[in-house]
Fold this sequence. Notes:
Blueprint: H1 4-15, H2 17-34, H3 40-72, H4 74-95, H5 103-117, H6 130-140, H7 146-155, H8 161-180, H9 186-193, H10 196-222
Amino acid sequence: MIDPLFVSAFIMGLxxxxxxxxxxxxxxSSLQLATDKTRPxxxxxxYNVGRAxxxxxxxxxxxxxxxxxxxxxHWVALTLALLSGLFMILVGxxxxxLGVSLQWLESLGKTLVWQHLVKLNRFIMPINSVPKAIAYGxxxxxxxxGLVYSALTWAMTSKTASxxxxxxxxxxxxxxxxxxxxxxxxxxxxxxxxxxxxxIALGSMLIWYGVYLLIIATDRLLH
Length: 223
């Protein structure tokens, strides 16, 4: 049976596809235009594989570190569980457009990480091979994104680094339909996912699961 957390990560990636199109759609489109026009699909696949690889690496890192401290302290484990449930609810509200944006989280990531990593871009350009396209995707996988960071808070609750990587893999898989459809129906998918009823239904799923996680964490805290 698939872990509910993996399913939630996939749903979050799928619902957040509109956000992905806004942030990474231009990058993916320019990649197809700037490279060998005879192999656009190969470069698109390579780019997204690299992006997913970065997500998985980040998930493994945060899960590996957090699981180490969680085994040392019961309070750390409870804090991570509460944080995961809280972010699940925040993302649900954000998707339903009932809460504030996650730009503050993206700004923090830009300051701490992205402004340093983006300098590596000059070693990859121009994109004229599949390995370079993978490297390009891997680099831009670290682009500050509130949804990615929220998914990482779920990965932090994983018991092992491999489980954390799987959480982020399922999240990445959820974003694939939109990213692969850039220029081939992305606007239709974007319209469907941004329909009010779709946002309410899918956002509610995340909120209820977030409440469920908070109830479990609170019960552990009280007992």
